[in-house]
Amino acid sequence: MSLKGKHLLCTQDWSLDELSKILQLAEDMKKERWSNKYAQVLDRRTFFMFFYNPSVRTRQSFEAAATELGGHAQFLEPKSMRLKTKKSAGETIEDAARVMSRYACGIGIRILEDKIGAYGEGHKLLSEYAEYADIPIVSMAHDKYHPCQGLADMQGLWQHIGRENVKGKKLLQVWGHGALARSWCSVQESILISSNFGMDVTMAYPEGYDVDPEVIAKTKANCEANGRKFETSHDPQTCYDGADVVYSRNWMHADTYQDGEFQKAKEVERAMKHNNWICDTDKMKRTNNALFTHPMPIDRGHEVSDAVASSDRSIIYDVAENRLHVQKAIMALTMGA
Ligand code: CP
Fold it and tell me: Are residues 106 and 254 in the same domain?
């Protein structure tokens, strides 16, 4: 099975065998991080990274990944590239994608929150690059999905639960209050990949914080295909009952985009009223001694208490580290020599 040249906009677009191949190589690369066998996989190759929004983990882990594979990751700010947008004249995506394909081995793109005017615009942009580029387009988090994060999450579960034991475990994907008005990407990716790998999924959130119905339908279909359950809860306490993995994260209300604008202030005011939606020690006592996970950056004191985030059941730093290993595996298999 060759993954050479494949785009990665969402893990759901790839087969389970393809995802497992990435995860297996990521495990091998983690164990043999400094082995010479991986040192020249991207020899003299450049990976372009467009960051419309800021990042700690994604930028640093992609740069480190390219270095460790013998290549180079180039940081690019789209605002400095004279690209055509809704509001300004400039180069089309088709021209940019065709030219960049002559220079680089792959392109990563991050576009979130305030850099779009409506949900779906980021996904449309990445899909257009994928249509015209002759090299892989990798989502580094866009409004709909965050596939590298989803793979790092799953590698964390393999590590802490065991590859064979993930199936049948219950993931609680729970909303947390806070002032960040986060995009849906990490959460939607998480429920897709977890259900695809055979987990039960419970989504818990205050009334009105529904995510993309198309993603929910796909998650339900994954659960059904695996003989697992998908449940929804609006109770911030009982939703924890029997969970094996708790993933607490803020996400924005669907109304946050209005009239082509990201209405952050209004959303923050609404979200902060739900201050009982925080993952804390008492709620974790209702679980099956669950692991706590989060893609980071964490909004401590809002999404989760310090005690839970720093507890011995928290796997946040392992998952953050896994970003490096899964991205090395993605680059090696889709862009490598
Ligand atoms: N999880 C994640 O993508 O982190 P950054 O926003 O810091 O890249």
Answer: no
